[in-house]
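RETRY 2/3 - previous attempt timed out on the joint model. Re-submitting the same 747-residue input unchanged.
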Amino acid sequence: MEQQTESAILGMWLFLAQEIMFFGGLFAAYLVYRFKYPEAWAAGSEELNITLGAFNTVVLLVSSLTMAMSVHAAQTGKQKRLISFLFLTLALGLTFLVVKYFEYKAKWEHHLVPGSNFVIHSKMFPDVDQAHSQLFFVLYFFMTGMHALHMVIGAGLLIWLIVLAYKNYFTPQRFMKVELVGFYWHFVDIVWVFLFPLLYLVHRHV
Amino acid sequence: MSTIAITPESALPARKHYLNIKTTLASWLLTTDHKRIAILYLISISVFFAAGGFFAGLIRLELLTPKGDLLDGDTYNKVFTLHGIIMIFFFLIPSIPAVLGNFLVPIMVGAKDLAFPKINLLSWYLYIIGGGLAVFALISGGVDTGWTFYTPYSSTYARSEVFLAVSAAFVAGFSSILTGLNFIVTIHKMRAPGLTWFRLPLFIWAHYATSLIQILGTPVVAITLLLVGLERLFHVGIFDPKLGGDPVLFQHLFWFYSHPAVYIMILPGMGVISEVITCFARKRVFGYEFIAFSSMAIAIIGFLVWGHHMFVSSQSTYAGIVFSLLTFLVAVPSAIKVFNWTATLYKGEISFEAPMMFAFGFIGLFTIGGLTGLFLGAMGTDVHFHDTYFVVSHFHYVMVGGMVMGFLCGMHFWWPKMTGRMYPQNIAIVAAVLVFIGFNFTFFPQFILGYLGMPRRYHEYAQEFQMLNVMSTAGASVLGFGYLLPVIYFTWSLFKGPAAGPNPWNAKGIEWQVQSPPPTFNFDEGRPIVVEEAYAYSTEG
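RETRY 2/3 succeeded.
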């Protein structure tokens, strides 16, 4: 039993190491182009909605807290607390995704989705290179999209935990599934903590 | 040959083992037994090897004559691309870890199964889905980018089937990641009592190092291929310079995985050779710690040398010099292994059974492959050899001469354990010799062709190169026959082979203490307790 627990934890850490490398490729691409085309990056970042991004950052950080509370509740065998914290975490996660949807929608309306309709006008850099700014938005959509996909998977895992919790599956001796989903959830939050300044705050430093 | 202990067929008790405990198709397709999953991999990998080999045969036939008379240029490009994709992603990378590793890692560490048996089954299904996508890409029109998917050709200009092929490699990549994850957790957490890290068989060390590369490298190529797919589908410019992207970035990301992937292919082979050499020399392996640590060193340094694929791709000279230096550095741990194997053989009681013959073949071919790698790691000579047949020959020596030889070596060594049957030694030795001779006839002329300047990837060539190409094609037919032989006698031995008994080679190691074939949970009499170091051969004189 102890061996199973240890194996599961090591397995999750290795999986997350794999995830870091997965996002690492994207961060490497970001880094290269950011240094190559700083103006296009600032112009692109100017178009992002800092208020919504900051709001979402807070939402995710709070959800990390509620997730940690869920793990604690599971460890101490408090069923009702566990269920309510899991619901709260799920609600925060879904809030993040809804806000993200409105952000994407606004980009679509402003012709900022890469493709033939792409066009960008920047106050800071009136003659910014269209192709390079488009590259910023390619990476913006791909990185945040990958992150959102991880959030959707996380939401699915939370629903699974809630179902198990209703069936009184978790006991102080058996809470490993909550803890592992917790690892995953914190990881996804941390990725966002890097994405937010890299994408939203660039033009503040030009 | 006195070491083979053969029990007569009639003396074999009717015993339940992993092969005959249940026989329905569902019991195979839904199994979580690592040994059955290994057999599933063995069958599917053999099919892919045959397909990849068929395409190789087409390439060699086309190159028999200087004119492109068998295949037109377009078809030729598709054929060598599929040869590459199938061989790399669906044969070389999974072969030893997924077949021999799956079968042996749990038994060798004294565990009942891998840490995550269901994930193990999942990784086989991912492999099959990836393979299915690759086959679908083939029949729906083919891909002509080469297995490297270089952008912007792959992302903008090539046929749309690129997307399918890229997805195939992506899915197969996750199969590889999950296998690696399973191995690392099993090796860390499930070792038998007394089995300390430095009592582990070197086969396990090799798989540990390989798994690290799989976990840290494969996700990078996965995301890169996803980006290629994205660019392909939506025409956004991540790698296409016309749209603001940078094709060199693709090469960096691609080779960051694909160079370490070479070590995913060769390290498990080295693990097999370490086991076989020490067993048939009846000697404790020379410099156990050095071989173990050299596996780890190869895994780590292997991540730092990707730039040697890019000496001529606008990389700065300084970067080139650093990558060149690091490339020389990675040759050191590989050389340590070869020297330690030879030192193990020195004054050993060597017996020339079939697995040992394959191991000798491995050392010979891998040494040539490794030494010619130095020509390519040095910037000056690489500029001359770049994209010539010298490169083709070099990596075939390492991967086919090394890795495939290692795979065959391991199959011959552990076949009695996997099936409980022996195979005819004499024919197997003939097969080993044929593969060695055929291989050298196929690929040695290609070194000369590359030196003379014949470029790779062309379906026509200048008249002056024909003689060497004819030699190469002739060698390929010998090689093909050498590969066919084991298929025949292995199949024969399944039905008619004499029973092997638990330890036909008198080898050391936990896997030889259990019955052949092993029971479902590997150990009928409880977990083994390890009391001695690995390879305590010299104690028996």
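Chain B has a mean pLDDT of 92. Closing ticket.
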